[in-house]
Amino acid sequence: MMSAHTATRRPFLRSLCVLAAGIAVSAGLGLSDARADVLTDIQKAGTLRVAVPQDFPPFGSVGTDLKPRGYDIDMASLIAKELGVKIELIPVTSTNRIPYLTTGKADLVISSLGKNPDREKVIDFSDAYAPFFNGVFGPEDVKLTKAEELAGKTIGVTRGSVEDLELTKITPATATIKRFEDNNATISAYLTGQVQFVATGNVVAAAVNDMTKLRRLGSKFLIKNSPCYVGVAKGEAALATKVNAIIAKAKKDGSLNDIAQRWLHAPLPKDL
Amino acid sequence: MAYRFDFAPVFEHTDLLLAGAGFTLALTAVGAVLGIGLGVTGAVCRAWKLRPFDRMFGLYVEVIRNTPFLVQLFFIFFGLPALGVRMSEWQAAVLAMVVNLGAYSTEIIRAGIQATPRGQIEAAESLAMTRPQIFRHVVLRPALAKVWPALTSQVIIVMLGSAVCSQIATEELTFAANFIQSRNFRAFETYFVTTGMYFVMALAIRQLLVQLGQHYVVGRAR
Protein backbone atom coordinates (compact mmCIF):
# COMPACT_ATOMS: atom_id res chain seq x y z
CA MET A 1 0.00 0.00 0.00
CA MET A 2 2.94 2.34 0.54
CA SER A 3 3.55 2.62 -3.17
CA ALA A 4 0.12 4.19 -3.65
CA HIS A 5 1.40 7.37 -2.08
CA THR A 6 3.32 8.95 -4.96
CA ALA A 7 1.05 7.40 -7.53
CA THR A 8 -1.93 9.62 -6.74
CA ARG A 9 -0.78 12.16 -9.29
CA ARG A 10 -1.08 9.69 -12.16
CA PRO A 11 -4.29 7.65 -12.31
CA PHE A 12 -2.77 5.04 -14.62
CA LEU A 13 0.30 4.63 -12.46
CA ARG A 14 -1.90 4.42 -9.41
CA SER A 15 -3.89 1.50 -10.74
CA LEU A 16 -0.66 -0.20 -11.71
CA CYS A 17 0.76 0.31 -8.25
CA VAL A 18 -2.43 -0.85 -6.54
CA LEU A 19 -2.18 -3.96 -8.68
CA ALA A 20 1.46 -4.35 -7.77
CA ALA A 21 0.70 -3.83 -4.10
CA GLY A 22 -2.06 -6.39 -4.31
CA ILE A 23 0.29 -8.91 -5.87
CA ALA A 24 2.98 -8.12 -3.33
CA VAL A 25 0.59 -8.54 -0.41
CA SER A 26 -0.78 -11.78 -1.73
CA ALA A 27 2.74 -13.02 -2.23
CA GLY A 28 3.55 -12.16 1.36
CA LEU A 29 6.09 -9.53 0.38
CA GLY A 30 6.34 -5.96 1.65
CA LEU A 31 6.98 -3.23 -0.88
CA SER A 32 7.59 -0.61 1.79
CA ASP A 33 11.23 -1.50 2.29
CA ALA A 34 11.96 -1.09 -1.36
CA ARG A 35 10.40 2.38 -1.55
CA ALA A 36 11.94 5.69 -0.63
CA ASP A 37 10.31 6.78 2.61
CA VAL A 38 7.65 9.49 2.88
CA LEU A 39 9.95 11.81 4.84
CA THR A 40 12.34 12.01 1.89
CA ASP A 41 9.40 12.59 -0.45
CA ILE A 42 8.14 15.45 1.70
CA GLN A 43 11.53 17.11 1.76
CA LYS A 44 11.90 16.62 -1.99
CA ALA A 45 8.43 18.05 -2.74
CA GLY A 46 8.85 20.89 -0.22
CA THR A 47 5.29 20.49 1.04
CA LEU A 48 3.74 18.59 3.92
CA ARG A 49 0.20 17.41 3.25
CA VAL A 50 -1.79 17.18 6.48
CA ALA A 51 -5.34 15.92 6.94
CA VAL A 52 -7.09 18.25 9.42
CA PRO A 53 -10.63 18.55 10.73
CA GLN A 54 -12.80 21.51 9.85
CA ASP A 55 -15.94 20.60 11.79
CA PHE A 56 -14.55 20.02 15.26
CA PRO A 57 -13.72 23.17 17.22
CA PRO A 58 -11.46 23.94 18.96
CA PHE A 59 -9.31 21.37 17.13
CA GLY A 60 -10.31 22.44 13.67
CA SER A 61 -12.98 24.74 12.32
CA VAL A 62 -13.38 27.30 9.58
CA GLY A 63 -12.69 30.85 10.73
CA THR A 64 -14.42 34.02 9.61
CA ASP A 65 -11.71 34.40 6.93
CA LEU A 66 -12.82 30.97 5.59
CA LYS A 67 -9.46 29.47 6.51
CA PRO A 68 -9.15 26.44 8.76
CA ARG A 69 -8.09 27.27 12.29
CA GLY A 70 -7.64 25.42 15.55
CA TYR A 71 -5.35 23.29 17.68
CA ASP A 72 -4.73 20.70 14.94
CA ILE A 73 -3.99 23.35 12.32
CA ASP A 74 -1.46 25.06 14.61
CA MET A 75 0.11 21.67 15.30
CA ALA A 76 0.37 20.94 11.56
CA SER A 77 1.98 24.33 10.91
CA LEU A 78 4.44 23.74 13.72
CA ILE A 79 5.55 20.41 12.26
CA ALA A 80 5.85 21.88 8.75
CA LYS A 81 7.93 24.75 10.10
CA GLU A 82 10.25 22.36 11.93
CA LEU A 83 10.64 20.30 8.76
CA GLY A 84 11.34 23.47 6.82
CA VAL A 85 8.62 22.80 4.25
CA LYS A 86 5.37 24.44 3.16
CA ILE A 87 2.05 23.25 4.58
CA GLU A 88 -0.88 21.95 2.58
CA LEU A 89 -4.03 21.45 4.64
CA ILE A 90 -6.50 18.80 3.50
CA PRO A 91 -9.90 19.09 5.19
CA VAL A 92 -11.23 15.68 6.21
CA THR A 93 -14.10 14.26 8.24
CA SER A 94 -13.78 11.85 11.12
CA THR A 95 -14.78 8.90 8.92
CA ASN A 96 -12.38 9.50 6.04
CA ARG A 97 -9.32 10.79 7.91
CA ILE A 98 -7.64 7.36 8.12
CA PRO A 99 -8.35 6.39 4.48
CA TYR A 100 -6.66 9.66 3.42
CA LEU A 101 -3.52 8.42 5.10
CA THR A 102 -3.67 4.78 3.99
CA THR A 103 -4.21 5.77 0.36
CA GLY A 104 -1.31 8.23 0.46
CA LYS A 105 -3.42 11.35 -0.12
CA ALA A 106 -1.99 12.84 3.05
CA ASP A 107 1.44 12.51 4.69
CA LEU A 108 0.11 12.99 8.23
CA VAL A 109 -3.26 12.94 9.92
CA ILE A 110 -3.58 15.58 12.63
CA SER A 111 -7.27 15.35 13.30
CA SER A 112 -7.87 14.85 17.04
CA LEU A 113 -7.19 11.19 16.43
CA GLY A 114 -7.39 8.82 19.39
CA LYS A 115 -5.46 5.57 19.61
CA ASN A 116 -7.13 2.15 19.71
CA PRO A 117 -6.06 -1.39 18.73
CA ASP A 118 -8.15 -1.43 15.54
CA ARG A 119 -6.54 1.75 14.27
CA GLU A 120 -3.08 0.55 15.26
CA LYS A 121 -3.50 -2.31 12.80
CA VAL A 122 -3.72 0.07 9.83
CA ILE A 123 -1.65 3.11 10.79
CA ASP A 124 1.14 4.10 13.18
CA PHE A 125 0.86 6.76 15.87
CA SER A 126 3.25 9.41 17.11
CA ASP A 127 3.45 10.47 20.74
CA ALA A 128 0.45 12.33 22.11
CA TYR A 129 0.27 16.00 21.16
CA ALA A 130 -3.07 17.13 22.65
CA PRO A 131 -5.13 16.27 25.73
CA PHE A 132 -8.61 14.88 25.16
CA PHE A 133 -10.45 13.56 28.18
CA ASN A 134 -13.61 13.39 30.20
CA GLY A 135 -13.07 14.66 33.66
CA VAL A 136 -14.49 16.41 36.67
CA PHE A 137 -14.39 20.20 36.60
CA GLY A 138 -15.02 22.71 39.33
CA PRO A 139 -14.04 26.07 40.81
CA GLU A 140 -10.32 26.77 40.54
CA ASP A 141 -9.91 27.48 44.28
CA VAL A 142 -11.44 24.16 45.40
CA LYS A 143 -9.11 21.23 45.82
CA LEU A 144 -10.30 17.90 44.44
CA THR A 145 -7.92 15.27 43.15
CA LYS A 146 -9.78 11.97 43.06
CA ALA A 147 -13.25 10.42 42.98
CA GLU A 148 -13.21 9.47 46.68
CA GLU A 149 -13.06 13.14 47.62
CA LEU A 150 -16.49 13.68 46.04
CA ALA A 151 -18.08 12.20 49.20
CA GLY A 152 -20.78 14.56 50.43
CA LYS A 153 -20.41 16.74 47.33
CA THR A 154 -22.92 17.47 44.58
CA ILE A 155 -21.88 16.83 41.01
CA GLY A 156 -23.81 17.44 37.81
CA VAL A 157 -23.63 15.23 34.74
CA THR A 158 -25.58 14.71 31.54
CA ARG A 159 -27.76 11.64 31.84
CA GLY A 160 -26.64 8.62 29.81
CA SER A 161 -23.32 10.18 28.75
CA VAL A 162 -19.99 8.35 29.01
CA GLU A 163 -19.19 10.55 32.03
CA ASP A 164 -22.45 9.51 33.70
CA LEU A 165 -21.76 5.80 33.28
CA GLU A 166 -18.14 6.04 34.44
CA LEU A 167 -18.84 8.43 37.30
CA THR A 168 -21.65 6.23 38.61
CA LYS A 169 -19.08 3.44 39.00
CA ILE A 170 -16.34 5.41 40.76
CA THR A 171 -18.07 7.91 43.07
CA PRO A 172 -18.66 7.10 46.74
CA ALA A 173 -22.25 6.46 47.82
CA THR A 174 -22.44 9.69 49.81
CA ALA A 175 -21.82 11.82 46.72
CA THR A 176 -24.95 13.21 45.07
CA ILE A 177 -24.98 12.84 41.30
CA LYS A 178 -27.51 15.14 39.65
CA ARG A 179 -28.35 13.90 36.17
CA PHE A 180 -29.57 16.55 33.78
CA GLU A 181 -31.35 16.17 30.47
CA ASP A 182 -28.67 17.63 28.20
CA ASN A 183 -25.22 19.24 28.22
CA ASN A 184 -26.74 22.68 28.29
CA ALA A 185 -28.69 22.05 31.51
CA THR A 186 -25.66 20.40 33.10
CA ILE A 187 -23.43 23.38 32.36
CA SER A 188 -26.15 25.85 33.41
CA ALA A 189 -26.52 24.03 36.72
CA TYR A 190 -22.81 24.54 37.33
CA LEU A 191 -22.70 28.15 36.17
CA THR A 192 -25.64 29.09 38.41
CA GLY A 193 -24.14 27.28 41.39
CA GLN A 194 -26.79 24.55 41.59
CA VAL A 195 -24.05 21.91 41.62
CA GLN A 196 -20.50 22.15 43.01
CA PHE A 197 -18.82 20.19 40.23
CA VAL A 198 -19.58 18.87 36.75
CA ALA A 199 -18.30 15.95 34.76
CA THR A 200 -17.80 16.72 31.08
CA GLY A 201 -15.23 16.77 28.27
CA ASN A 202 -12.19 19.07 28.41
CA VAL A 203 -13.20 20.44 25.01
CA VAL A 204 -16.66 21.36 26.32
CA ALA A 205 -15.11 23.00 29.38
CA ALA A 206 -12.76 25.00 27.15
CA ALA A 207 -15.65 26.16 24.96
CA VAL A 208 -17.65 27.22 28.04
CA ASN A 209 -14.69 29.07 29.57
CA ASP A 210 -14.32 30.79 26.23
CA MET A 211 -17.93 31.98 26.22
CA THR A 212 -18.54 33.03 29.82
CA LYS A 213 -16.63 34.31 32.81
CA LEU A 214 -19.54 33.48 35.15
CA ARG A 215 -17.85 30.60 36.96
CA ARG A 216 -14.60 29.14 35.62
CA LEU A 217 -14.36 25.43 34.96
CA GLY A 218 -11.06 24.23 36.40
CA SER A 219 -9.85 20.72 35.65
CA LYS A 220 -9.95 18.47 38.76
CA PHE A 221 -9.35 14.85 37.81
CA LEU A 222 -9.60 12.50 34.85
CA ILE A 223 -12.45 10.08 34.28
CA LYS A 224 -11.51 8.73 30.91
CA ASN A 225 -8.40 9.68 28.95
CA SER A 226 -8.08 9.49 25.20
CA PRO A 227 -5.37 11.95 24.08
CA CYS A 228 -4.79 12.85 20.42
CA TYR A 229 -1.95 11.45 18.33
CA VAL A 230 -0.53 12.27 14.92
CA GLY A 231 -1.31 9.48 12.48
CA VAL A 232 1.57 8.25 10.28
CA ALA A 233 1.35 5.68 7.49
CA LYS A 234 2.21 2.15 8.58
CA GLY A 235 5.94 1.44 8.58
CA GLU A 236 7.11 5.03 8.01
CA ALA A 237 9.55 4.85 10.91
CA ALA A 238 11.73 7.74 9.72
CA LEU A 239 8.78 10.15 9.53
CA ALA A 240 7.35 8.94 12.84
CA THR A 241 10.69 9.44 14.58
CA LYS A 242 11.00 12.93 13.14
CA VAL A 243 7.44 13.85 14.22
CA ASN A 244 8.10 12.51 17.71
CA ALA A 245 11.26 14.58 17.94
CA ILE A 246 9.33 17.70 16.92
CA ILE A 247 6.59 16.98 19.47
CA ALA A 248 9.17 16.40 22.22
CA LYS A 249 10.90 19.66 21.34
CA ALA A 250 7.60 21.57 21.27
CA LYS A 251 6.69 20.19 24.70
CA LYS A 252 10.08 21.23 26.06
CA ASP A 253 10.29 24.75 24.64
CA GLY A 254 6.69 25.55 25.55
CA SER A 255 5.35 26.07 22.04
CA LEU A 256 2.89 23.18 22.45
CA ASN A 257 1.78 24.66 25.76
CA ASP A 258 1.08 27.93 23.93
CA ILE A 259 -1.15 26.10 21.48
CA ALA A 260 -3.01 24.40 24.37
CA GLN A 261 -3.49 27.74 26.13
CA ARG A 262 -4.71 29.34 22.94
CA TRP A 263 -7.34 26.74 22.03
CA LEU A 264 -8.15 24.87 25.24
CA HIS A 265 -7.58 27.73 27.71
CA ALA A 266 -5.70 25.31 29.93
CA PRO A 267 -2.04 24.38 30.29
CA LEU A 268 -0.83 21.14 28.76
CA PRO A 269 -1.25 18.30 31.32
CA LYS A 270 2.11 17.27 32.81
CA ASP A 271 1.61 13.58 32.05
CA LEU A 272 0.88 14.03 28.34
CA MET B 1 -36.78 -6.46 11.83
CA ALA B 2 -39.08 -7.95 14.46
CA TYR B 3 -38.51 -6.14 17.77
CA ARG B 4 -38.27 -8.47 20.72
CA PHE B 5 -40.19 -7.03 23.65
CA ASP B 6 -38.44 -7.58 26.92
CA PHE B 7 -39.82 -6.03 30.07
CA ALA B 8 -37.39 -7.72 32.44
CA PRO B 9 -34.71 -4.96 32.16
CA VAL B 10 -37.39 -2.46 33.20
CA PHE B 11 -38.71 -4.44 36.14
CA GLU B 12 -35.15 -4.81 37.42
CA HIS B 13 -35.52 -1.15 38.36
CA THR B 14 -38.99 -1.41 39.94
CA ASP B 15 -37.65 0.19 43.13
CA LEU B 16 -36.53 3.26 41.16
CA LEU B 17 -39.91 3.53 39.43
CA LEU B 18 -41.80 3.23 42.71
CA ALA B 19 -39.55 5.76 44.43
CA GLY B 20 -40.09 8.10 41.46
CA ALA B 21 -43.86 7.61 41.57
CA GLY B 22 -43.84 8.28 45.32
CA PHE B 23 -41.89 11.46 44.80
CA THR B 24 -44.29 12.60 42.05
CA LEU B 25 -47.24 12.03 44.41
CA ALA B 26 -45.48 13.89 47.24
CA LEU B 27 -44.71 16.83 44.95
CA THR B 28 -48.33 16.83 43.78
CA ALA B 29 -49.72 16.69 47.33
CA VAL B 30 -47.64 19.61 48.59
CA GLY B 31 -48.19 21.51 45.35
CA ALA B 32 -51.96 20.97 45.45
CA VAL B 33 -52.45 22.03 49.09
CA LEU B 34 -50.29 25.15 48.85
CA GLY B 35 -51.45 25.93 45.31
CA ILE B 36 -55.16 25.80 46.20
CA GLY B 37 -54.44 27.85 49.33
CA LEU B 38 -52.80 30.47 47.14
CA GLY B 39 -55.73 30.18 44.73
CA VAL B 40 -58.30 30.85 47.47
CA THR B 41 -56.38 33.94 48.61
CA GLY B 42 -56.10 35.21 45.07
CA ALA B 43 -59.73 34.45 44.30
CA VAL B 44 -61.01 36.41 47.33
CA CYS B 45 -58.79 39.40 46.48
CA ARG B 46 -59.96 39.34 42.88
CA ALA B 47 -63.68 38.69 43.57
CA TRP B 48 -63.99 41.30 46.33
CA LYS B 49 -61.67 43.77 44.58
CA LEU B 50 -59.39 44.24 47.58
CA ARG B 51 -56.97 46.95 46.40
CA PRO B 52 -54.11 46.72 45.60
CA PHE B 53 -54.05 42.95 45.88
CA ASP B 54 -56.65 42.34 43.18
CA ARG B 55 -54.43 44.06 40.60
CA MET B 56 -51.36 42.15 41.78
CA PHE B 57 -53.12 38.82 41.54
CA GLY B 58 -54.53 39.84 38.15
CA LEU B 59 -51.03 40.42 36.82
CA TYR B 60 -49.76 37.18 38.41
CA VAL B 61 -52.57 35.14 36.86
CA GLU B 62 -51.97 36.59 33.40
CA VAL B 63 -48.20 36.08 33.52
CA ILE B 64 -48.39 32.48 34.72
CA ARG B 65 -51.26 31.38 32.51
CA ASN B 66 -49.61 32.79 29.40
CA THR B 67 -46.14 31.29 29.81
CA PRO B 68 -44.97 27.66 29.56
CA PHE B 69 -44.52 25.67 32.77
CA LEU B 70 -41.07 24.53 31.65
CA VAL B 71 -39.89 28.11 31.25
CA GLN B 72 -41.26 29.01 34.70
CA LEU B 73 -39.35 26.07 36.13
CA PHE B 74 -36.10 27.02 34.38
CA PHE B 75 -36.54 30.61 35.52
CA ILE B 76 -36.83 29.51 39.14
CA PHE B 77 -33.98 26.98 39.00
CA PHE B 78 -31.48 28.60 36.63
CA GLY B 79 -32.63 32.23 36.65
CA LEU B 80 -33.18 33.11 40.30
CA PRO B 81 -29.63 32.19 41.40
CA ALA B 82 -28.53 35.35 39.57
CA LEU B 83 -30.52 37.25 42.22
CA GLY B 84 -28.96 35.17 44.97
CA VAL B 85 -32.04 32.94 45.42
CA ARG B 86 -30.79 29.38 45.15
CA MET B 87 -32.95 26.37 45.92
CA SER B 88 -32.59 22.64 45.50
CA GLU B 89 -34.26 20.94 42.56
CA TRP B 90 -37.21 19.60 44.59
CA GLN B 91 -37.80 23.00 46.18
CA ALA B 92 -37.75 24.58 42.73
CA ALA B 93 -40.16 21.91 41.47
CA VAL B 94 -42.60 22.46 44.35
CA LEU B 95 -42.42 26.24 44.01
CA ALA B 96 -43.06 26.04 40.25
CA MET B 97 -46.04 23.74 40.81
CA VAL B 98 -47.51 25.94 43.57
CA VAL B 99 -47.09 29.10 41.50
CA ASN B 100 -48.58 27.42 38.45
CA LEU B 101 -51.56 25.82 40.21
CA GLY B 102 -52.10 29.00 42.24
CA ALA B 103 -52.71 31.03 39.09
CA TYR B 104 -55.15 28.57 37.52
CA SER B 105 -57.02 27.89 40.75
CA THR B 106 -57.33 31.64 41.44
CA GLU B 107 -59.41 31.94 38.30
CA ILE B 108 -61.35 28.72 38.90
CA ILE B 109 -62.29 29.60 42.49
CA ARG B 110 -63.00 33.25 41.62
CA ALA B 111 -65.68 32.00 39.23
CA GLY B 112 -67.21 29.98 42.09
CA ILE B 113 -67.18 32.94 44.49
CA GLN B 114 -68.72 35.29 41.97
CA ALA B 115 -71.51 32.78 41.37
CA THR B 116 -72.67 33.21 44.97
CA PRO B 117 -75.61 35.68 44.91
CA ARG B 118 -75.10 38.87 46.91
CA GLY B 119 -78.42 38.22 48.65
CA GLN B 120 -77.08 35.10 50.37
CA ILE B 121 -74.34 37.11 52.06
CA GLU B 122 -76.88 39.75 53.13
CA ALA B 123 -79.09 36.99 54.49
CA ALA B 124 -76.18 35.62 56.51
CA GLU B 125 -75.44 39.10 57.85
CA SER B 126 -79.04 39.52 58.92
CA LEU B 127 -78.74 36.21 60.80
CA ALA B 128 -75.91 37.84 62.82
CA MET B 129 -73.25 35.49 61.49
CA THR B 130 -69.72 36.78 62.03
CA ARG B 131 -67.53 37.69 59.05
CA PRO B 132 -65.36 34.57 59.37
CA GLN B 133 -68.50 32.43 59.61
CA ILE B 134 -69.96 34.05 56.52
CA PHE B 135 -66.73 33.58 54.62
CA ARG B 136 -66.42 29.94 55.58
CA HIS B 137 -70.00 28.72 55.25
CA VAL B 138 -71.65 31.07 52.78
CA VAL B 139 -68.84 32.11 50.48
CA LEU B 140 -66.03 29.58 50.33
CA ARG B 141 -67.70 26.23 50.74
CA PRO B 142 -70.45 26.73 48.13
CA ALA B 143 -67.87 28.26 45.80
CA LEU B 144 -65.52 25.27 46.12
CA ALA B 145 -68.46 22.87 45.74
CA LYS B 146 -69.39 24.51 42.42
CA VAL B 147 -65.85 24.33 40.97
CA TRP B 148 -64.62 21.10 42.61
CA PRO B 149 -64.57 19.04 39.37
CA ALA B 150 -62.57 21.77 37.61
CA LEU B 151 -60.10 21.96 40.50
CA THR B 152 -59.71 18.18 40.47
CA SER B 153 -58.81 18.27 36.78
CA GLN B 154 -56.32 21.08 37.37
CA VAL B 155 -54.56 19.14 40.13
CA ILE B 156 -54.22 16.16 37.78
CA ILE B 157 -52.86 18.42 35.03
CA VAL B 158 -50.25 19.71 37.47
CA MET B 159 -49.35 16.15 38.51
CA LEU B 160 -48.84 15.15 34.87
CA GLY B 161 -46.98 18.40 34.23
CA SER B 162 -44.53 17.60 37.02
CA ALA B 163 -42.92 15.23 34.48
CA VAL B 164 -40.94 18.17 33.10
CA CYS B 165 -39.30 18.64 36.51
CA SER B 166 -37.05 15.74 35.45
CA GLN B 167 -35.27 18.34 33.29
CA ILE B 168 -33.70 19.92 36.36
CA ALA B 169 -32.79 16.53 37.84
CA THR B 170 -35.76 16.26 40.18
CA GLU B 171 -35.90 12.54 40.77
CA GLU B 172 -39.60 11.96 40.11
CA LEU B 173 -41.25 9.30 37.94
CA THR B 174 -40.20 10.64 34.52
CA PHE B 175 -36.65 11.08 35.79
CA ALA B 176 -36.65 7.42 36.87
CA ALA B 177 -37.98 6.41 33.44
CA ASN B 178 -35.36 8.47 31.58
CA PHE B 179 -32.64 7.12 33.83
CA ILE B 180 -33.66 3.50 33.25
CA GLN B 181 -33.99 4.12 29.53
CA SER B 182 -30.49 5.65 29.40
CA ARG B 183 -29.11 2.44 30.92
CA ASN B 184 -31.01 -0.32 29.11
CA PHE B 185 -32.18 1.50 25.93
CA ARG B 186 -35.54 -0.25 26.23
CA ALA B 187 -37.50 2.86 25.32
CA PHE B 188 -40.81 1.19 24.42
CA GLU B 189 -40.95 -1.00 27.50
CA THR B 190 -39.77 1.70 29.91
CA TYR B 191 -42.17 4.38 28.73
CA PHE B 192 -45.01 1.88 28.36
CA VAL B 193 -44.72 0.95 32.03
CA THR B 194 -44.31 4.61 33.01
CA THR B 195 -47.37 5.64 31.01
CA GLY B 196 -49.38 2.95 32.80
CA MET B 197 -48.16 4.21 36.16
CA TYR B 198 -49.13 7.82 35.40
CA PHE B 199 -52.55 6.64 34.21
CA VAL B 200 -53.20 4.72 37.42
CA MET B 201 -51.93 7.61 39.54
CA ALA B 202 -54.20 10.08 37.75
CA LEU B 203 -57.24 7.83 38.24
CA ALA B 204 -56.36 7.36 41.91
CA ILE B 205 -55.97 11.11 42.52
CA ARG B 206 -59.30 11.77 40.80
CA GLN B 207 -61.04 9.17 42.97
CA LEU B 208 -59.40 10.54 46.10
CA LEU B 209 -60.40 14.11 45.33
CA VAL B 210 -63.97 13.10 44.46
CA GLN B 211 -64.23 11.28 47.78
CA LEU B 212 -62.67 14.16 49.72
CA GLY B 213 -64.94 16.60 47.93
CA GLN B 214 -68.05 14.59 48.75
CA HIS B 215 -67.05 14.32 52.35
CA TYR B 216 -65.74 17.79 53.17
CA VAL B 217 -66.91 20.21 50.48
CA VAL B 218 -69.88 19.30 48.32
CA GLY B 219 -71.75 17.28 50.93
CA ARG B 220 -71.58 20.05 53.54
CA ALA B 221 -72.32 22.88 51.19
CA ARG B 222 -75.95 21.89 50.87
From TrEMBL, chain B:
It holds the Pfam family BPD_transp_1. Its main location: membrane. The chain crosses the membrane at residues 20-48, 69-87, 190-209. Residues 21-209 form the ABC transmembrane type-1 domain. It is a multi-pass membrane protein. It is found in: Cell inner membrane; Cell membrane. Keywords: Cell membrane, Membrane, Transmembrane, Transmembrane helix, Transport. PANTHER family: ABC TRANSPORTER PERMEASE PROTEIN (PTHR30614:SF35), MEMBRANE COMPONENT OF AMINO ACID ABC TRANSPORTER (PTHR30614). Belongs to the binding-protein-dependent transport system permease family. HisMQ subfamily. NCBIfam families: HEQRo_perm_3TM. This is ABC transporter permease subunit.
